[in-house]
Amino acid sequence: MPLVSTRRLHKFFGRNHVLRGIKLDVEESEVIAIVGRSGSGKSTLLRTLNGLENIDDGTIEVDGTVLQVDHDDPGALRALRQKVGMVFQQFNLFPHLSTGQNVTLAPRVVKRTPREEAEDIARRMLERVGLGEKFDAFPDQLSGGQQQRVAIARALAMSPKVLLCDEITSALDPELVNEVLSVVRQLADEGMTLIMVTHEMRFAREVSDRLVFMHEGRIHESGSPQEMFSNPTTPEFASFIGSLN
Amino acid sequence: MMSFSLWDIVRNLLVGGALTLLLSLAAFVLGGATGLAVLLARIGRRRAPRALARMYIELFQGTPLLLQLFTLFFGLSLFGLDVPAWLAAGLGLTLFTSAFLAEIWRGCVEAVPRGQWEASACLALTYREQMRHVILPQAMRLAVAPTVGFAVQVVKSTAVTSIIGFTELTKTGSMIANATYQPFLVYSLVALGYFVLCYPLSHYAKSLERRLHAAR
Ligand SMILES: Nc1ncnc2c1ncn2[C@@H]1O[C@H](COP(=O)(O)OP(=O)(O)OP(=O)(O)O)[C@@H](O)[C@H]1O
Ligand SMILES: [Mg+2]
Fold first, then answer.
1. pLDDT tens, residue by residue, B69-105
2. What is the pLDDT of residues A90-130, one digit of tens each?
3. Which residue of A56, A191, A216, B89 shows the fewest CB atoms closer than 10 Å?
4. What is the Cα–Cα distance from B65 to B53, expressed in whole angstroms?
5. The pTM is what?
6. Domains within chain A, CATH numbers bracketed
7. What is the DSSP letter of A197?
8. Which residues on chain A are in Cβ contact (under 8 Å) with B122?
9. Could you say which DSSP state residue B130 is in?
């Protein structure tokens, strides 16, 4: 049974029909890269998966937790969000909290983990992203790449089943992109289930098990990245990869 | 006719000034507490309290303080409640302060970037937990400078309560001016009194603002 599964997902912003029937199954430990033109609905799809955007039709199921159309079950939403971590383009660290507090906040508040245990977890997660020594630093004392790695550690501290990443290197200076990508690559190698929207085609090609090309609110083409890049089957994807170079 | 030395004038004004200070403090503390409740209703997710809080704020922001005091003072006496001037003054200023602070603070809550709400929602925090751990601590930092700045307005607004007969600084001044026939001297001293109370506050508000700007 897939870990994440959506059926006939529809989403409107006003009259703008942004998601037009998305069917997506993601197996445990699978790494999915979502690509597509600006406005094709990539971020919206990702944001529906943890209930940041509600949906107008369809179902979302993550590890047995079902999200209904109108989010009328706050318990289900909370349960789902504990299984789905998310990392944003803009990091969104809590600026008034230290790195360590950023990472321990949710385990302590949501899972009621005792302080010492939560700090233990936080230290381990910060080590994992190569920032073990930054536990007491504040976000504004860190580089963009470091902040993004803290954001990853913060998400990991909740032990999510799947991690969503929305263009997490797009706001970074070019020389800081690799430190973040190598953390993602390491997570993928460790078997983390990842769904990422990215413009880093080379990275998507190397790391992902499956490439998903979105076009006008639909999954237009998907498959193994090697195959799709060498043999695009739709003219839209062909023109999309053509426009990259 | 009684004669007043300068010391007599100053001594009486000091008593009035102390009452002005006391009234300001009471209005600010009680108004702050009430304002926090109004704020939470105003930004909460429940429709009815939100609408009520909004009406409350608009009512007090949209009418002159003087009329609010008159309404309290004379209105309550219509119901047979004999409200002493100090109580009407304190109550009126508290309500006035709470409405303005709630609105100032709402602006600060809304100035917290949307990403902070989203990041904390993704971590499965509930609305209350988001407020308590993520949003309000950041809004409070933003609120410090405008709140201190508003305290200056509160001090100056207390002068209006002289009209319903509360013997704070202004009322004391006008009584002494009538008795001494030295209005210029007396009112200058009254103005000086307000300045002494307000200047440190506005200076503090400015330096806070500078410091917070530098920290950005
Ligand atoms: N909060 C919103 N309110 C209204 N319309 C929105 C909102 N968010 C997204 N949209 C619209 O939905 C469509 C899809 O947007 P989305 O952000 O999902 O695209 P995307 O594929 O992530 O694009 P990009 O590559 O630029 O990030 C766009 O037409 C966008 O204008
Ligand atoms: Mg996007």
1. 999 998 888 888 888 899 999 999 999 999 999 999 9
2. 999 999 999 999 999 999 999 999 999 999 999 999 999 99
3. A191
4. 18
5. 0.89
6. 4-244 (3.40.50.300)
7. E
8. 50, 52, 81, 84-86, 155
9. H
Alpha carbons B215 and B204: distance in angstroms, whole number: 16
Candidate from A196-200, B17-21, B70-74, B101-105 with smallest mean pLDDT? B70-74
A36 near A87, Cβ under 8 Å?
Answer: no
| Cβ separation A85–B125 shorter than 8 A | no
How close does chain B come to A91, measured CA to CA in Å?
A: 9
The pLDDT tens digits of the residues spanning A138-187 come to 999 999 999 999 999 999 999 999 999 999 999 999 999 999 999 999 99
Class assignment of domain B6-215? mainly alpha
Lookup: tokens for A174: 């070019």
For residue A244, the SS3 value is: coil
ipTM of the complex: 0.94
Domains of chain B, residue spans: 6-215
CA-based nearest residue to A4, from A35, A40, A45:
A45
Q: What chain B residue is nearest to A87 in terms of C-alpha separation?
A: B119
DSSP 8-state class, residue B7: H
Q: Please count the other Cβ atoms lying within 10 Å of the Cβ belonging to residue A230.
A: 8
Tell me which residue of B214, B178, B172 sits closest to B190, measured CA to CA: B172
| Residue corresponding to tokens 């190397």 | A206
Tell me what the mean pLDDT of segment A44-55 comes to: 94
Contact B134 A94 (CB under 8 A): yes
- Atom in ligand 1 nearest the alpha carbon of residue A40: 21
Residue B216: the pLDDT is: 45
- Best residue of A63, A92, A104, A138 to probe chain B, by most B CBs closer than 10 Å: A92
- A196 lies within 8 A of chain B by CB: no
